[in-house]
Design brief:
It comes from Streptomyces marokkonensis. Keywords: DNA-binding, Transcription, Transcription regulation. Pfam families: TetR_C_13 (PF16925), TetR_N (PF00440). Helices cover about 70% and strands about 0% of the residues. The protein has 10 helices and no strands. The N and C termini lie far apart (about 70 Å).
Length: about 200
């Protein structure tokens, strides 16, 4: 029977990745050191580098995993609801739930991890993700204007940026201790400015 070369990995990669995700989510990219990561992941530095590459590569994988597991509610809401307003309403309501869920850091990793980040590639990558989310909202609004579901003079760019600002603000409010009910009330006010036909 042939034996595989090298020592077998002595840790569960998925579990280690989840622990890294939580560390980055809680502290942000810059404030989370490699020693913080190895401690929370329960692995040595050589194992971290062998399994995930450097800190930046690990963070990129964490951001992808976050998007799949925790951060996809907005994209889903816009895709599944019949109008941009309905998608935005669902997105804001789900943000109130997701950003205050017990047992994990509050707010959004993609928003929080960029705070005080001096690594330009990481900062740019996170900015591109946030801007892509706003562009997705704008596209949906433009489609509704074209379909007559929103007034023809709707400023799709401004409305999308407003919605993005609300989501980003809700994330920070959650980190500052706002409750789910407080964020839900904020979502209601945010929806009041949406135009109607």
């Amino acid at each position: 029977m042939a034996r595989s070369r090298g020592r077998p990995r002595s840790f569960d990669r998925a579990t280690a990745l989840e622990k890294a995700l939580m560390a980055f989510w809680e502290r942000g990219y810059e404030a989370t050191s490699v020693s913080d990561l190895t401690r929370v992941m329960g692995i040595g530095t050589p194992s971290l580098y062998a399994a995930f590459g450097d800190k930046r590569s690990l963070f990129e994988e964490v951001v992808h995993e976050y998007g799949v597991r925790y951060g996809s509610f907005g994209t889903r809401a816009l895709a599944e609801e019949p109008t941009a307003r309905a998608g935005t309403e669902r997105m804001l309501r789900e943000a109130a739930v997701e950003y205050t869920a017990p047992g994990r850091p509050h707010g959004c990793l993609v928003i929080h991890a960029a705070v005080n980040c001096s690594t330009s590639e990481v900062e740019e990558s996170l900015r591109e993700r946030r801007n892509a989310n706003i562009a997705g909202i704008e596209d949906r609004i433009r489609a509704d204007v074209a379909a007559g579901a929103l007034p023809p003079d709707t400023d799709a760019t401004a409305l999308a940026r407003y919605t993005g600002a609300m989501i980003q603000g809700m994330s920070q409010q959650a980190r500052d201790g706002a409750s789910r009910a407080e964020l839900e009330a904020l979502a209601e006010i945010a929806l009041a400015v949406w135009p109607s036909v």
